[in-house]
Design brief:
The protein has 389 residues and is α+β, with helices and mostly antiparallel strands. It folds into three domains: 115 residues, Butyryl-Coa Dehydrogenase, subunit A, domain 1 (Orthogonal Bundle); 104 residues, Butyryl-CoA Dehydrogenase, subunit A, domain 2 (Beta Barrel), CATH 2.40.110.10; 146 residues, Butyryl-CoA Dehydrogenase, subunit A, domain 3 (Up-down Bundle). It is 50% helix and 15% strand. The chain has eleven helices and nine strands. The strands form three sheets. The protein has a four-stranded antiparallel sheet with strand order 2-3-7-6, covered by helices on one side. Helix 5 runs antiparallel to helix 7. The longest helix is centred in the middle third of the chain and has 35 residues. It binds flavin-adenine dinucleotide (FAD).
């Protein structure tokens, strides 16, 4: 892997404050030191680096854009830069941080009781507890409204039955935020590890996000006290609002994966020689590929920064964030595929980070709203007509 010094063709750094650059630099150094030297091994073994969770918590990386309960209270641009640097290491780490912060801490902060906030936010922020978010089911991904998981009232408790699939951090989570159909609509429940009737089993054989834990959660008459239901979360709008937070982080995160791939391809092209001992970077077609890559990365950086500034002003809505997620994930996947091509056969070897990023991005293209679903969200915004069914 070649050293990385940042990618900034259009002096976008001049739009960042010193504080924002400092946050980026701190996480960049953490990733260079703790992740880059080991990630290929973790990826090969299909192992999540759980020992990094507490150090990440100490750096303030979980729920960094939330206020109170020990959270760093950073701006959304600072938060985005954290996600970018984590995903430059690997999408698995960024996925972990997205779930922990945007999909578990955010809903507890937004919809939880004071007791739930006090119980869970400090340990989740510090990385002393792990959370997961269960929305998807084996038969319902893009259409979670049709979920089958049920929460039936029984005295002062709820009885949970159903199954959640493809759940990041599922089997290592101390608390699962599970969305279920109750008598009064979709509700969120904090299900603690060890609850009788609740079990988690890992999904094996993934070619993508191999350094991330992905699990199936099963609920068979799991008794959940009503104090574990999020009091303010009613209807599908609540989990969708969490997805908006996570999608925002993804829009930034994938920039990191794209920059890593571009950096690798550029440095490789400058030293790889073919035909009369000329570096492949001197050939016009290779230059065109590199130019396409840096142009798309630069446009995506500007999109992320603009949406981040809008979010800091309270003006970014879910459709803006859909555009960010949709554009930047597709951009990163295209950049990874181009970088793979530039490395020729070496592009498929895990001595280089490209194929790993490319495989990871295939999941990122699908989760948190597939590319198609974001097309439909933006399509509905611009036409006023919904085309989901
Ligand atoms: C590694 C990984 C981690 C994940 N982590 C989590 C997690 O932590 N928590 C969680 O709840 N979920 C998680 N997911 C699940 C993820 O959110 C879903 O996979 C995603 O929502 C898509 O659902 P699906 O896989 O059922 O695909 P489907 O919904 O079956 O879609 C299949 C294809 O059909 C297309 N499609 C579907 N409906 C339409 C339509 N109306 N119009 C046009 N095209 C359509 C889709 O775009 C896609 O191309 C994870 C997934 C992966 C791969």
């Amino acid at each position: 892997m070649f050293p990385f010094h940042g990618i900034d063709f259009l002096e976008i750094d001049s739009l960042l404050s010193d504080e924002e650059k400092l946050v980026r630099q701190t996480v960049r150094e953490f990733v260079n030191r703790e992740v880059i030297p080991h990630i290929e091994e973790w990826n090969r073994e299909g192992r999540f680096p759980q020992h990094l969770v507490q150090p990440m918590g100490e750096l303030g990386l979980f729920g960094a854009n939330l206020q109170g309960y020990g959270c760093a209270g950073m701006s959304n641009v600072q938060y985005g830069l954290i996600m970018q640097e984590l995903e430059r290491g690997d999408s698995s780490l960024r996925s972990f941080a997205s779930v922990q912060g945007a999909l578990v801490m955010y809903p507890i902060a937004a919809y939880g009781s004071d007791e739930q906030k006090e119980r869970w936010l400090p340990p989740l922020q510090q990385g002393k507890a792990v959370g997961c978010f269960g929305l998807t089911e084996p038969d319902f991904g893009s259409n979670p409204a049709a979920m089958r998981t049920r929460a039936a009232r029984d005295g002062s408790d709820y009885i949970l039955n159903g199954e959640k699939a493809w759940i990041t951090s599922g089997s290592i989570a101390d608390v699962a935020l599970v969305w279920a159909q109750a008598e009064d609509g979709i509700r969120g429940f904090l299900v603690e590890k060890g609850t009788p009737g609740f079990s988690a089993k890992d999904i094996k054989g993934k070619w993508s996000l191999r350094a991330s834990v992905t699990s199936i959660l099963s609920f068979q008459d799991a008794r959940i006290p009503s104090r574990n239901a999020l009091p303010e979360a009613r209807g599908l709008k609540a989990p969708l609002s969490c997805l908006t937070q996570a999608r925002y982080g993804i829009g930034w995160g994938v920039l990191g994966a794209a920059m890593a791939c571009y950096n690798e391809a550029l440095e490789y092209a400058k030293i790889r020689k073919q035909f009369d001992e000329k570096p492949i970077a001197s050939h016009q077609l290779v230059q065109e590929t590199l130019v396409e890559m840096i142009t798309e990365i630069t446009k995506a950086q500007l999109l992320a920064l603009h949406v981040g500034r809008l979010k800091d002003q309270g003006r970014a809505d879910f459709a803006h964030i859909s555009m960010l997620k949709r554009n930047n994930v597709k951009m990163a996947l295209d950049v990874a595929r181009s970088a793979r091509d530039i490395l020729g056969a070496n592009g498929v070897a895990d001595e280089y980070p490209i194929f790993r990023h490319m495989c990871n991005l295939e999941s990122v293209y699908t989760y948190e709203g597939t590319h198609n679903i974001h097309t439909l969200i933006i399509g509905e915004r611009v036409t006023g007509l919904a085309a989901y069914e």
